[in-house]
Amino acid sequence: MNFKLHESKRLGQDELRSLVRMHSEPKQVKKRGIRRTLRLATLSVALSSTGACAVMGNGAVSVNSGPAGNYAIPTTSPTTTSPSSNVAYSTLGFYPGDGFHWSNFQNEEKKYNRAIPWALLYTDSGSPSKMLSSATWDMSGFSFLPPSGSALGRPGNVVESIPLAFDNMTLAQVAAGTADLQYTQAAQVIARVFPNAVIRPGWGFDGPWTPWAQSTNQQAFIAAYQRVSAIFKGVSKGFQIELCGDSGFQGNWTSANINALLKNTDIIGMAIYDNTSLTGLQNNLNWLYSFASSNNKKIGIPEWGLGTTDDPGFIQTMNTWFNSLGSTLAFNIYFDAKTSQLSTHPSSQAAFNQTFNTP
Questions:
Q1: Rg (CA), the chain
Q2: ∠ Cα 61 159 22 (to 5°)
Q3: SS3 of 119, please?
Q4: What angle do the packed helices 346-356 and 312-325 form, to 10 degrees?
Q5: For tag attachment on the chain, is the N or C end more exposed, with fewer CB atoms within 10 Å?
Q6: Is residue 55 within 8 Å of 61, Cβ to Cβ?
Q7: pTM score
Q8: Three-state SS for 283?
Q9: Count of beta carbons in the 10 Å neighbourhood of residue 32
């Protein structure tokens, strides 16, 4: 797509600070339903050889029959070689919760006594100016933390969620360039602190609950996605773009439209939460691995977490699957807030400490 970006100067420190707003988590995150999720039903863990969900070394998942609600912790297929390091540990991140994201992120580092590689952030979909303000708010805080890897330092990288439409602006208007200036300035603000950030434009796009829902106008979504992705990559060559929809979304898309979506895409992802059947989890993880690998893309899980149940089996299952992906996995980010908050689920917290906090 050929287009000319609005001429815009880079924001200076005074301008950056003037854009900071004292606001809490963007409203679209407060609405739990905005995140299109895969939910895994409660897993009752049995440390035995009864039925198992086996995570293969190639990222595929197979489910063996066993007593209902009673199955063993999944293990890597014995026909493959287990990764030499804990990939789930080295790619771990957190959503740092509402409000002061950098302070909340430091609390996660204190809790686990380690540097955390990744953080998930959201920008506001109320308007282009609100998107820019919320991006500036996040970056201004992280910019004052010590470098990544230091005690209580900033994350090594972030996944920043960027709207593709707003309460006052349609997909078609974004595709036509109406918000180019604000997207460019947001990209500049993010690049100043995280020049290699992962940008997640129009996350959950195949659900009906976002201003950028594509169910009625795929061409407008593709045009907006391509335009915004190109703007961000034009600001920083280190930016990577993540396409984050739901399992099997391509069933509603033509091959040409899928190829158009993948044009500026580096990573394929989805959100995974603990409230669906085991077979449903199997199908969705297998689809994600197949779709990403067939298109030579990495996999990134920008959101995963518990439902309302204390479920250590879910934690262990995800750890094993992440490790089975090896270098294919770019990041896995735990949504440590609301009903997924680990501190309110003691058995899951213990499982997390054992599996995700060991190099």
A1: 20
A2: 135
A3: strand
A4: 20
A5: C
A6: yes
A7: 0.80
A8: helix
A9: 11
Structure tokens at 126: 């109320």
For residues 221 and 171, the answer to whether their CB atoms sit within 8 Å is: yes
- Residue located via tokens 């796009």: 205
Helix axes 128-142, 101-112, angle to 10 degrees: 40
110, 351 Cβ separation under 8 angstroms: no
Can you tell me which residue has the tokens 């606001």?
23
Which distant-in-sequence residues (6+ apart) come within 8 Å of 295 by Cβ?
A: 262, 268
DSSP 135-201: HHHHHHHHTTSPPTTSTT---SEEEEEE-SSBTTB-HHHHHTTTTHHHHHHHHHHHHHH-TTPEEEE
Which candidate, 266, 195, 265, places its Cα nearest to that of 236? 195
Q: Per residue in 200-239, pLDDT tens?
A: 999 988 777 788 986 668 899 999 999 999 999 999 999 9
Residue 101 one-letter amino acid? H
Residue among 294, 269, 286 at smallest CA distance from 202: 269
Amino acid identity for residue 352 in this structure: F
In 210-331, alpha helices (H): 218-235, 255-261, 278-294, 312-325
